[in-house]
């Protein structure tokens, strides 16, 4: 429900176009909306996988699940502004108001804080599930997958921290830091995916 509300916030400022020019302006706004939607979908999917996999309802997990909507709603407007700015540069449209080095640095730092906070929260969730692995009755493969999920979400958070540091000196490059997520996640998935498959095959052969 909260993710639907966050998506609504992304488009709440849009009105029905009254002219061709307004329609084209709204169509240009679809690209940043699609990028924002993709990131929110990634966050929703991560939360959905955690909930389906462990089904935890203890007070600590409930607390983290309460904090998550707060962080998502904090994150949604910087998210929208960052991608609106990015696509405005690509399409050559103007951004209302003055926007210089200082504003860019502050914006990218706010975005990095929101991004890192969301995925650090997932690190805490998966770390909590890992601590309860015996109570949850996780088998060795599920334990390995839980550890892999901790590392994966930590990678997201670390890249955001790196972007925050870069934004202090070069805000124009801060956004490009996130491009490192693709190769890092591919390497991580390749290594730990192979380990998970080998462990699963070993357990099956031992039965």
Gist?
With 207 residues, this protein is mainly alpha-helical.
Task: Write the topology of this structure.
Blueprint: H1 2-11, H2 20-28, H3 30-54, H4 59-91, H5 101-131, H6 133-136, H7 140-169, H8 171-174, H9 181-206
Q: What is the terminal separation in angstroms?
A: 43 Å
By secondary-structure content and strand pairing, the structural class works out as: mainly alpha
Which of globular, elongated, flat, extended, rod-shaped describes the shape? elongated
Enumerate how many helices there are, as a single number. 9
Number of strands: 0
Question: Can you describe this structure?
Answer:
By secondary structure, the protein is an all-alpha fold. The protein has one domain. It is 83% helix and 0% strand. It is built from nine helices and no strands. It starts with a helix and ends with a helix. The model has no long low-confidence stretch (mean pLDDT 82).
Defining traits:
207 residues, mainly alpha, elongated
């Amino acid at each position: 429900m909260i993710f639907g509300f966050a998506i609504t916030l992304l488009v709440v400022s849009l009105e029905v176009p009254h002219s061709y020019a307004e329609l084209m302006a709204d169509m240009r706004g679809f690209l940043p909306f699609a990028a924002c939607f993709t990131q929110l979908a990634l966050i929703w999917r991560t939360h959905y996988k955690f909930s389906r996999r462990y089904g935890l309802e203890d007070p600590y997990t409930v607390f983290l699940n309460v904090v998550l909507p707060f962080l998502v709603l904090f994150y949604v407007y910087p998210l929208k502004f960052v991608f609106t700015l990015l696509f405005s540069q690509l399409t050559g449209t103007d951004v209302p108001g003055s926007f210089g080095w200082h504003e860019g640095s502050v914006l990218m730092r706010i975005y990095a804080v929101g991004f890192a906070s969301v995925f650090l929260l997932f690190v805490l969730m998966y770390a909590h599930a890992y601590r309860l692995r015996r109570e949850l009755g996780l088998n060795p493969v599920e334990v390995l997958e839980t550890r892999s999920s901790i590392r994966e979400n930590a990678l997201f958070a670390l890249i955001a921290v790196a972007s925050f540091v870069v934004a202090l000196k070069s805000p124009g490059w801060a956004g490009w830091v996130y491009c490192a997520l693709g190769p890092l996640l591919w390497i991580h998935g390749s290594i730990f995916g192979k380990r998970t498959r080998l462990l699963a095959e070993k357990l099956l052969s031992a039965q």
